[in-house]
């Protein structure tokens, strides 16, 4: 007896893509079998040539609630996630108000999420100067790890840490074997004021690769000193690929992600005054980004995460086109899969790699790798059904996150998400949401 059987010719398993049937009971994968099941007690679905993949896991999302729900929110953000095949995300500790740097703030964050989640959601705690006494309290509340900035975060309540701050925090984090996620930009020299603040090339030169490279070098040293798990978020400088590779050869517990926008866009093609493209670190040149692709394929970069960070139009300086003043953040949560797949298929990268980069590898960072990220017996029945050969043009009307401004508007993308399943329950089906607010808060 079982609840659900999904059959198809392209099921992404840990051993590759295979034909067969995934059998589900009580929200858990009971088995993956060859052939089609005919048990009349189950809901039986045949997806044919479409791909069945584990539900996508995005551990780098800014939902901004409580306090800045004018920017995003649990309801809109997780709705966009469900429509994009994402079944689990982890919310960043800044942009909400209060920021998640105390146990009390964590309580407020979790309370705000209750009853609003379309998908599962966990939380990172924050490391800022002076909150050392809150680290173990946050761990006690169930945070999945911690995030720190080495340069100004853009939010005054979430200031950057110094090396001295990290030397106090990292032994505590290491004791609990949790990851420390780091925004790696270290201002080595202040850039000269730019004459044209609408120029993308001027913005790009204002945040040089050297800032990232210096910050990553620091984190390698500290990782070695404290044996603390370090995760480099949104890598954009290809100069740091080799140092990361060498650190891993030494056995240091360092992981790294990049973001879809660094793999899809190139600086040479970005028009001036188009603030939708602004992010930090910036989208760099084509040759740099091709090196990121190679590092991803060689498993030096572990996975890809959106860093979804929308903001209201006035903060994005849509009217002025001022790239120096505009909020740095790209809205892309719903498009995580088609963006990566569209860029990958141009490079003849197979669909099975989407499962590795969007599901299996990101599950490990927040410690969910024993229950999520694979289609295998005993794992949660979180799935996305998608058509790799179907294409669509991105329009604002399709997007479910709060602010529709994104550099992907009008882009033609391959990979249409048809269904999303959470714990064996259909939560997104060809544009509709048949089951609402099924997501759970994930705590350690």
Automatic annotation (TrEMBL):
Q: Which cofactor does it need?
A: Zn(2+)
- Pathway this chain belongs to: Nitrogen metabolism; (S)-allantoin degradation; allantoate from (S)-allantoin: step 1/1
GO terms classed as biological process: allantoin catabolic process; purine nucleobase catabolic process
Q: Which GO terms of the cellular component aspect does the record hold?
A: cytoplasm
Write down the superkingdom of origin.
Bacteria
Q: Which UniProt keywords apply?
A: Hydrolase, Metal-binding, Zinc
Q: Which GO terms describe its molecular function?
A: allantoinase activity; cobalt ion binding; zinc ion binding
Q: What is its EC number?
A: 3.5.2.5
Domain (Amidohydrolase-related) spans: 51-426
- EC class, as a word, reads hydrolase
* UniProt xrefs under InterPro entries: Allantoinase, Amidohydro-rel, DHOase/Allantoinase_Hydrolase, Dihydroorotase_CS, Metal-dep_hydrolase_composite, Metal_Hydrolase
Listed under subunit, the entry gives: Homotetramer.
Q: What does this protein do?
A: Catalyzes the reversible cyclization of carbamoyl aspartate to dihydroorotate.
The entry assigns this protein to a family as follows: Belongs to the metallo-dependent hydrolases superfamily. DHOase family. Class I DHOase subfamily. Belongs to the metallo-dependent hydrolases superfamily. Allantoinase family.
Tell me what this protein is called: allantoinase
């Amino acid at each position: 007896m079982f609840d659900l059987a999904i059959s198809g010719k392209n099921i992404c398993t840990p051993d590759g893509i295979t034909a067969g049937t995934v059998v589900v009971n009580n929200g858990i994968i009971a088995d993956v079998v060859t052939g089609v099941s005919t048990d009349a007690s189950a809901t039986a679905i045949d997806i044919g040539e479409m791909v069945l993949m584990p539900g996508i896991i995005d551990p780098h999302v800014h939902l901004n609630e409580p306090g800045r729900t004018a920017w995003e929110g649990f309801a809109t953000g997780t709705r966009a996630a469900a429509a994009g095949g994402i079944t689990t995300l982890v919310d960043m500790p800044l942009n909400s108000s209060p920021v998640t740097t105390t146990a009390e703030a964590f309580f407020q964050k979790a309370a705000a999420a209750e009853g609003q989640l379309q998908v599962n959601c966990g939380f990172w705690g924050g490391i800022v100067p002076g909150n050392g006494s809150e680290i173990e309290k946050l761990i006690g509340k169930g945070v999945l790890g911690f995030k720190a900035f080495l340069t100004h975060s853009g939010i005054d309540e979430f200031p950057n840490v110094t090396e001295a701050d990290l030397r106090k925090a990292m032994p505590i984090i290491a004791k609990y074997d949790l990851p420390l996620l780091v925004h790696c930009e270290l201002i080595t020299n202040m850039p000269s004021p730019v004459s044209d603040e609408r120029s993308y090339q001027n913005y790009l030169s204002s945040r040089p690769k050297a800032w990232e490279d210096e910050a990553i070098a620091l984190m390698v040293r500290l990782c070695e000193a404290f044996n603390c798990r370090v995760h480099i978020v949104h890598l954009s400088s290809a100069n740091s690929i080799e140092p990361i590779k060498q650190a891993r050869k030494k056995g240091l517990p360092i992981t790294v992600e990049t973001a879809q926008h660094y793999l899809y866009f190139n600086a040479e093609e970005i028009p001036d005054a188009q603030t939708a493209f602004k992010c930090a670190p910036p989208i760099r040149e084509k040759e740099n980004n091709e090196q990121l692709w190679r590092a991803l394929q060689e498993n030096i970069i572990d996975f890809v995460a959106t860093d979804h960070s929308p903001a209201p139009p006035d903060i994005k300086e849509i009217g002025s086109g001022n790239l120096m003043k505009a909020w740095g953040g790209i809205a892309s949560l719903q498009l995580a899969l088609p963006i990566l797949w569209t860029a990958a298929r141009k490079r003849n990268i197979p669909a099975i790699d989407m499962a590795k980069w969007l599901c299996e590898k990101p599950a490990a960072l927040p410690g969910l790798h024993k229950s999520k990220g694979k289609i295998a017996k005993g794992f949660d029945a979180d799935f996305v059904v998608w058509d790799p050969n179907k294409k669509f043009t991105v329009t604002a009307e399709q997007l479910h996150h709060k602010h529709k401004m994104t550099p992907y508007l009008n882009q033609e993308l391959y990979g249409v998400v048809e269904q999303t399943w959470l714990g064996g329950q259909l939560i997104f089906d060809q544009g509709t949401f048949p089951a609402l607010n099924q997501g759970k808060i994930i705590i350690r």
